[in-house]
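Write out this protein's structure.
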Amino acid sequence: MKLELSKLELSEQMIKTCLEMETRDINQGTSGNLSMRFNNGFLITPSSMPYNEMKPEDIVEMDWEGKFIGKQPSSEWRFHRDILKERKDINVVLHCHSINATALSCHNKDIPAFHYIIGLAGGNNIRCAKYATFGSQELSDNALIALKDRLACLLGHHGMICLGKTFKEALWLGSEVEAMSKIYIKALSIGNTQILSEKEMEKVVKQMERMSYGKGPEPEGSEDIARPKNG
């Protein structure tokens, strides 16, 4: 995606992404929100408006000081602003209340490396941020801690956040986090799962980074695969 797209074009893509969040069943009603880096600030979805009623002119433009043009921005604008200011490597912040990820967040549970796909979030777990009131600066501060060196996190008793360079990336990651949350809950119903070692997850993340740059997997070497440890 080119950042030089117009506000109208980006707003149309934002609405399309929000509708896709519902199609993929990772969000519902007026919950969740979406933002995109734009000019000297960002665009964000408005507060309390169903996605199927949203028009491009409803998308709100904000600056880094919290000033905005148009409708009232999402109540979660603070963590969108702070994440985009902090993370120069991403352009999109997606927040949703998907069922399984939110269920785990209600137990304040990180998602450990029970499956290698957890590495898509950038490390050996998907952290759960400490609970804070929605829309508060405290929630934003907690989210930044949970997202350090990560592309996704859960929000305690709330939902999830996923990051990406594009709407497509953030939406894809949100779907993956929800799928992993569902699998983790099912795995726990059988008993405690084994957790992949930090050494193995370092290899996984490195391999994923190579794949994302189109380099393909690393050739087989002499290094042994790290074994799971009991979790």
